[in-house]
Amino acid sequence: METSSGAEAAVKIVPSHTIAGVVLMVLFLYFFFRHFMLVLMVMDLVIGWLRQFRWFPKEGKRLRTLVHWLIAFGLIGVYLAVAGSLGWLNFVPT
Fold first, then answer.
1. What CA–CA distance (Å, rounded) separates 72 from 78?
2. Tell me: the pLDDT tens digits for 5-21?
3. Which residue stretches of 1-94 are H helix?
């Protein structure tokens, strides 16, 4: 009995006509742009709500926030390297 995995269920779209490919690309770019605008709109709503909290970075504190993000990112990378070398984590290729 055969079972299908997620990789076998992948679909590749190959247009048989040039015009069909162009229309598909235009529709995809339109959807991508509209999705980007939707994400920005939701982010604006969320940021407007977060600004009422004292702990949320105010304007002029963005560089400090970026530095703290870089520190956190570096700490995660160092932890992954150390934990991997000590055998605490196993990195398995797919």
1. 10
2. 555 667 787 888 888 88
3. 18-50, 62-86
Tokens of 88: 């605490």
The residues, any chain, with a CB within 8 Å of residue 22's CB and separated by 6 or more, are none
Q: What is the pLDDT of residues 52-69, one digit of tens each?
A: 998 888 777 878 888 999
Q: What angle do CA 76, 81, 87 make, to 5 degrees?
A: 120
Q: Which amino acid is at 62?
A: R
Tell me 51's DSSP state: T
- Contact call for residues 30 and 38 (beta carbons, < 8 A): no
Q: What is the pTM of this model?
A: 0.52
